[in-house]
Amino acid sequence: MEQTFYDIAHALKWNEVRDFIYSRTEDDVERALKKERITMDDFAALVSPAASAYLEQMAEKSYLTTRRRFGNTMQLYVPMYLSNWCTNRCIYCGFNCRNHIRRTVLNEEQIREEAEVICKDPFQHILLVTGEDPVKADVKYLGRAIQIMKDYFSQVSIEVQPLEQEEYEYLRPLGLHAVAVYQETYNEERYPVYHLSGKKSNYRYRLETPDRVCRAGVAKVGIGNLIGLEDWRTEAYFTALHARYIEKKYWRTKVSISFPRLRPHESADAFQPNYPTTDREFLQIICSYRLLSEDLELNLSTRESREYRDKIMPFGVTSVSAGSKTDPGGYAHPNEELEQFAINDDRSPREVCQAIREKGFDPIWKDWDFFFN
User: Fold this and answer.
1) Which among 368, 332, 323 is positioned nearest to 121, based on CA atoms?
2) Strands (E), the chain
């Protein structure tokens, strides 16, 4: 069987990687900052405690690297939730199958209604999101939703349950541009603590999803971990290793990284973050990813506050969500009861656009790949 990233990650010992990161010194950080192309050992230094004293230098280099590669532009995108049905019991998520919330799945008329409201702003990149229920939102349903969205948007991405390679191959000619699938935590031993039941509890199947996406010829894949579950430095190392693996093995596929922090939600399991991050540490993560690769697209969501998003936007970020609703049908008919998590930056897309301009950047409403296809 062809090697996947699971084989690489499984061969590493989480505690040994963590100890290696925490053993890095200021000399290691200084050597990393002098390089144009860093190694994974260098990345370990950049996310280590020793790098905290060098955050300003990291931010400056990250800023210059991002401007050189992407110019003074910032992409805007918007998520659209199709369904909140889910068969998984994930203790950190508002869609947890044990939670007593009203469940819904949008029909074709409702999907078009949502699209027409969103189109009042000039978005050209839409991210379709569902809970993970392969019956309520199967691949045929997703295919039809993508086809509808192509009437309104140039590019359509999905963040849904992991699919088989042939299912991605089915969706791609219908208009699928990118797939986002987040591992949540790369700690294989601790993974079952957070994923109590459902298909998502299969660590290996989920981790191999980006391999299936890339083999299906999808243009872009998004990866990431949920910040707050496990040690953020070690999580960042494994996420970076995953990104570098994809860039090397599937060089035709573009890679994006998201770094969501846990937000309040309705949960039957009342989970609280084990490893919270400070705002400085969060910026350290972003800068480290940028110094890993100038080609990575880095996405900043509305989980962060408006003030903080505006502050850190220049230092590595290439795209931001705007006007997000995390409830199905939420653009036409907002309903907090259906939300996956609470939004932190509730500005309208126009307000976010204005904030981007005030930072000296040009907001764009299309996906980056539009310019390279």
Assistant:
1) 323
2) 73-83, 89-90, 125-130, 155-159, 176-180, 195-197, 220-224, 254-258, 297-300, 319-321, 362-364
CB contact set of 152 (below 8 Å; sequence gap of 6+) = 115, 116, 118, 119, 126
Residue whose token pair is 């999101």: 129
Position 263 pLDDT exceeds 70: no
Q: Residue 65: name the closest of 253, 242, 292 by CA.
A: 292
pLDDT tens per residue, range 310-363: 999 999 999 998 888 888 998 988 776 555 556 788 888 899 999 999 999 999
At 136, the amino acid letter reads K
Tokens representing 246 are 């994809």
Q: How far is Cα 131 from Cα 133, in angstroms, rounded to an integer?
A: 6
DSSP 94: T
Dihedral angle, C-alpha 239, 181, 84, 269, nearest 10 °: -30
- CA separation for the pair 264, 228 (Å, rounded): 12
Strand pairing report for 89-90 and 195-197: antiparallel
The CA distance from 291 to 306, in Å, is: 25
Q: What is the DSSP letter of 250?
A: S
Q: What is the pLDDT of residue 116?
A: 95
Tokens of 158: 């999905």
Phi then psi for 221, rounded to 5 degrees? -130, 140
- CA nearest neighbour of 55 among 285, 241, 325, 370: 285
Tell me how far apart the 2 most distant CA atoms of the chain are, in Å.
Answer: 60
Residue identified by tokens 């950049």 is 46
Which DSSP state fits 49? G
Q: Taking the model in full, what pTM does it have?
A: 0.93
Q: Tell me the torsion sign for CA atoms 223, 303, 40, 294.
A: positive
Of 261, 181, 183, 259, the residue nearest 220 (C-alpha):
181
What residue spans of the chain are helical by DSSP H?
A: 5-11, 14-22, 26-34, 40-46, 55-70, 108-118, 139-149, 165-171, 191-194, 203-207, 209-215, 232-249, 279-292, 306-312, 349-358
Scored b (16 or more CB within 10 A) or e, 156-185 reads bbbbbbbbebebbbbbbeebbbbbbbbbbb
pLDDT tops 50 at residue 268: no
